[in-house]
């Protein structure tokens, strides 16, 4: 296969971890006989500095022409003024809107080797393998906004349409059907009108999937139950804000935010793939960031945009293999454990991709 990947390293540790993701992608290409062409473009703060825009037209064009997009991270103290007219996060929100990416997938799978890396008791989290399906282009992040004026009042509007809920619900039920056939729909229907529409609409869609079990869970209860019974969850279907918060909470189940990958998808096969973590400007360029979230995002890219299922599984096996050997970046290590840097972790996983396939 020949595939074209738009690469948006972004800000902070973004370039550091993207380099390791591309290293693993190159190993997949060498091992399986694929050719992956890449086109690097700026986004976020780096794009503001270079062009004055967080999402330059050339970047957007490159993404539209690509088979998939790999994104690092955006933002940092240099551009942190929330009142600024131009901000890095506008680049990411604009990219999602322009590409029609309404479904955000955030898998949370606990690698057996990291059972002791989580701050939670092992017996609470052993066997965790869940998927957060987050609606990405509606809700409070995109509703009508009023900045505070002299009256000291600000407002953000949470708005959803039935059609937006229907399409994300179908994504969740289809994915659950290929997993363990359970969907937990997260809402706040006891308080919010949007959540009452959400619950009613999700229930209607569920009738089309009789083999998938649906439960409704209030968001505050879900936050508690993620810590109490995480292995019982399969697919969590959430609105935009709730998914943003709950998926970051769920990162602790996997041992570190640096372990989590994500995919943002629309109606076609084009998707944006990125680690869940932020730009971590305090460690940018130091070679100590955990690249596994980005590397697992490469696995998601191979699976969802390129339909290379064996190759995606090889990346995931390689990550598990390296972790089982005791290789740890600083965020995963116990106080007495030795650690490796960003590049060495990428090297080890890339080598495991090559060796793992050769030994099959």
Describe the protein:
With 360 residues, the protein is α/β, with parallel strands linked by helices. It folds into 2 domains: 1-102 and 272-360, Isopropylmalate Dehydrogenase (3-Layer(aba) Sandwich); 119-253, Isopropylmalate Dehydrogenase (3-Layer(aba) Sandwich). The chain has 12 helices and 12 strands. It has helices at residues 14-32, 45-51, 57-65, 89-99, 122-125, 162-177, 193-206, 219-228, 240-250, 292-304, 309-324, 342-358; strands at 2-10, 35-40, 68-73, 103-109, 129-135, 145-146, 155-156, 182-187, 213-218, 235-238, 261-265, 271-275. Helix 1 packs across helix 10 and helix 1 packs parallel to helix 12. The longest helix has 19 residues, at 14-32. It starts with a strand and ends with a helix.
* Major β-sheet annotation: 10 strands, mixed
CATH topology tier name of the largest domain:
Isopropylmalate Dehydrogenase
One letter per element, helices H and strands E, the order comes to EHEHHEHEHEEEHEHEHEHEEHHH
Terminal-residue CA separation:
21 Å
- Output the number of helix runs: 12
CATH homologous superfamily caption of the largest domain: Isopropylmalate Dehydrogenase
Q: Architecture of the largest domain in CATH? A: 3-Layer(aba) Sandwich
The structural domain count equals 2
């Amino acid at each position: 296969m020949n595939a074209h990947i738009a690469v948006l390293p972004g800000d902070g540790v973004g370039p550091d971890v993207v380099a390791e993701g591309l290293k693993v992608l190159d190993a997949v290409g060498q091992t399986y006989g694929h050719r992956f062409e890449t086109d690097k473009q700026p986004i976020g703060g780096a794009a503001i500095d270079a062009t004055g825009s967080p999402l330059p037209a050339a970047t957007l064009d490159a993404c539209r022409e690509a088979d998939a997009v790999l994104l690092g991270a955006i933002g940092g103290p240099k551009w942190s003024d929330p009142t600024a007219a131009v901000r890095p996060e506008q680049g990411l929100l604009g990219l999602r809107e322009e590409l029609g990416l309404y479904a955000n997938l955030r898998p949370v799978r606990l690698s057996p080797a990291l059972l002791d890396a989580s701050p939670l008791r092992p017996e609470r989290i052993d066997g965790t393998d869940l998927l957060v399906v987050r609606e990405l282009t509606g809700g409070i992040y995109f509703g009508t906004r009023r900045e505070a004026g002299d009256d000291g009042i600000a407002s953000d509007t949470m708005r959803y349409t039935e059609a937006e809920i229907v399409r994300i619900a179908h994504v969740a039920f289809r994915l659950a059907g290929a997993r363990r056939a359970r969907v937990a729909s997260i809402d706040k229907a006891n308080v919010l009108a949007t959540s009452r529409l959400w619950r009613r609409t999700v229930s209607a869609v569920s009738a089309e999937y009789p083999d998938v079990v649906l439960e409704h869970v209030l968001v505050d209860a879900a936050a508690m139950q993620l810590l109490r019974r995480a292995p019982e969850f399969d697919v969590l279907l959430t609105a935009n804000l709730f998914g943003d918060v709950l998926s970051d909470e769920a990162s602790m189940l996997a041992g570190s935010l640096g372990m989590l990958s994500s995919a943002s998808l629309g109606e076609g096969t084009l998707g944006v793939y990125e680690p869940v973590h932020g730009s971590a400007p305090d460690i940018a360029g130091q070679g100590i960031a955990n690249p596994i979230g980005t590397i697992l995002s490469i696995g998601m890219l191979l699976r969802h945009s390129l339909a290379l299922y064996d190759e995606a599984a090889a990346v995931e096996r390689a990550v598990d293999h390296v972790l089982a050997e005791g290789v740890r970046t600083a965020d995963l290590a116990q106080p007495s454990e030795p650690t490796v840097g960003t590049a060495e972790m990428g090297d080890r996983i890339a080598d495991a991709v090559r060796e793992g396939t050769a030994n099959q």
